[in-house]
Amino acid sequence: MQFSLLQPTLTTLLGSFFDETTTCAWFIGNQQSYYIHNQRLENCTIEETVAVKKITNELKSAAFQVAKTALLFRKRPEIKTSSFHKINFLSGESLLISTVSSVEIVAIFERVLKNQLADLAKRQHILHIIDNESTKTNSLQQENAALRLLRKNELQVLIHQWEKSQLPNRVIVTPSFYQKIDLLSTNEAIIYQLNTAFELIQFLTPGLNEYQLTAVYFTSSENQQQASNERINNSISLTRNRAELLLDKYEQAAQVALDNAQVINGKTIANFLQPAVSPPAITDALKKNRKAIKALLDENPSKWGLLRNYLKPIKNISELSSLTLQAGFN
Question: 102: which residues sit within 8 A by CB, 6+ positions away?
Fold first, then answer.
């Protein structure tokens, strides 16, 4: 154990157990020896170190008498002939105590000192473990940050290549969509998410020269059936989800046209969509999703009232559903 860690405990206990005016101690370390008196610590000279080591090597019994020498006691007149006691540590270091106190007091001191040093060693060991774990954690965090940065760079290249592959359509993946992507996803899963989002935005706003994929069009890879619009039930297929979004969007545009005292038809709905599209684009989208739209109209008779009454393609589908239903009862 490093003496700098041991020294506060040692000097405190020496002052607590022994008469400071009649007790001296020497700590014999592997590298340096120290003279301790009255809780003061001084480095031993070479001569003192040699003398102390000679005594500790010759000391066999628990205590023995030795005449004081000016060398060891540094000309302290208060210190008379004393008993020397040696305490050995597991580290190979030793403590030599010169005191008039009894052997029993020295034995108690030794036991208390070693117990406290054992506790100190345990604390140091725990701190060492914590420090090692902290170092490992920091290393892992740095490694993780480096890997995340590498993956982000790979992802940027992947998305850029995908955007170029959509030409002549100009497609821009916005930061909000990018932030939704799980960096742990495979490239195949990310391409699937991009394709799904592009299909959805084309379905809702066909005929544009530029498409911006935002977080609204992101579909989680863990649950591809969850649409960005929370109103859509998870059990409905992706095609039906898109058809419902389409009907909602057209119904909202029809309501805006009505609020502006405009006739509700394909042209006005196309103009009031955000962004606006051409009327043929609306007709084309309805034709492509006719089956899903018919099913939704049948299942939700109270929804999309403006489209049912004023938009001819929807009106035709709705009336066909009504005729089919009536024929079933005749």
Answer: none
Q: Is the per-residue pLDDT at 190 higher than 50?
A: yes
pLDDT more than 70, % of the chain: 83
Mean pLDDT of 111-138: 85
The domain defined by 3-124 folds into Beta-Lactamase (3.30.450)
- 265: amino acid identity, one letter: N
Query: H-helix or E-strand containing 114?
Result: helix 103-165
- pLDDT band at 77; cut points 50, 70, 90: low
More confident residue, 322 or 280: 280
Q: How many other C-beta atoms are found inside a 10 Å radius of the C-beta of residue 117?
A: 19
| 183 DSSP assignment | T
Torsion of CA 317, 242, 277, 214, to 10 degrees: 170
- Whether 20 contacts 37, CB under 8 Å: yes
Q: What angle do CA 85, 86, 87 make, to 5 degrees?
A: 125
**175: phi then psi, degrees, rounded to nearest 5:** -55, -35
Per-residue CA distances from 101 to 31, 68, 109, 110 (Å): 29, 16, 11, 13
The tens digit of pLDDT for each residue in 258-274 reads 999 999 998 999 999 88
Residue ranges of domains in the chain: 3-124, 166-224, 238-330
- DSSP assignment letter at 75: T
Tokens for 9?
A: 């405990």
Helices (H), 213-276: 238-259, 266-272
pLDDT at residue 173 is higher than 70: yes
Whether the pLDDT of residue 58 is over 80: the answer is no
